[in-house]
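Q: I'm teaching a short session on how sequence maps to structure, and I want students to see two examples side by side rather than one. Could you give me a first protein with its sequence written out and its structure tokens following it? Keep the formatting plain so it prints cleanly on a handout.
A: Of course. Example one:
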Amino acid sequence: KSCQKPVDKYIEYDPVIILINAVLCKAQAYRHILFNTKINIHGKLCVFCLLCEAYLRWLQLQDSSQNTDPDDLIRYAKEWDFYRMFGIASLEQTSFFIGIFITLWWMTPEMLKRKSDFILLLKALLLSTYGKLLLIPAVIWEHDYTPLCLAFIKVFVLISNSQAIRVTLNLNRILPWFAIFFGLIFENGVVCLFQKMGWDV
């Protein structure tokens, strides 16, 4: 019913080919992964992606601060800034998802009637953030084009999020992008709110 085909062709495919097609953001591959496989790594993948993002931010924070004060070195040794970056990354991602859920619930309330619909969409969004794992090679192979690489990774994650929403709720291409756009606005709004409150976000 969701695939709108007689049979899911990916049942016979090798997992590597399915992964490659998912990286290419093919809707059928997303449908296969979400509906016809039993993957339960959503939470672990989310935490690992947030750790990658927090490490990248922490690394940039260390590079920008060339203070040789011993107290500052002790502060970095304790890694409090890393935990703060992890909290900020978690806050931003949660705000982004809330913005998406609000938009989709407002635009298509019939699609999100049951709790299971929300859970399926949340799992799909968590799985579709796998592109953040590309932050690891971006940090390892640090070069002059790192900001450009980070921008491409962000765009790739947003495209993956769009496909996940589209496949999960069986929508056209426009509404998922509208939800993602509102999610980004909501995320930036929450960050600005905390900054106005005096929090170092």
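Q: Perfect. Now a second example for contrast.
A: Example two:
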Amino acid sequence: LEEIPPRPVQDTGNILKQGYLEKRSREHSFFGSEWQKRWCVLNRRTFYYYANEKSKQPKGNFPIENYSARLAFHLRKDSRKKCCFELICPGKRTYEFTAPSPAEAEDWVDQIQFLLKDLSSSTIPFDEEDEEELYNDVDSSDSVNTTSHNTTLNQDEPNVEVKEDDIYEILPGKQPKPE
């Protein structure tokens, strides 16, 4: 049997923002670049960064809670300095990024600040979306088809005895009308 590969975060459905950013590496070598292009994904709890858009495994991730986001023009001296922002959490690593444009940098900061406000608010449960996903299978088309199929089978025989272990019960007068 073929193993199913792990799904990339992009498939989880609760993404607030994603896109390419340049991330400043923690230890850059003499030959390596200080800024590396990364596909970044923000969901309701975690900030992920990947080598590229198609990567299955993140290069790294961190819980976004307790971080703060702000524009950080001091990170670069070149023409892209107004595209920089950083994520800061006391006692933890500071993450530094360069967006493709100043507007995009502001949008990342705004999205993260909005999310953090939600996470710190006691009135908005932060796993609201996850709960919905757990119950989506209840009305899957399989159970609907099974029910209508059994009803159709019994439609012509209204006096069929129902065995005790049969989960379907035929009620008088409740037969579906033929279409």
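Q: What should students look for in example two?
A: Point them to this: The domain at 15-121 is CATH 2.30.29.30 (PH-domain like). Also worth mentioning: DSSP finds three helices and seven strands in the chain.
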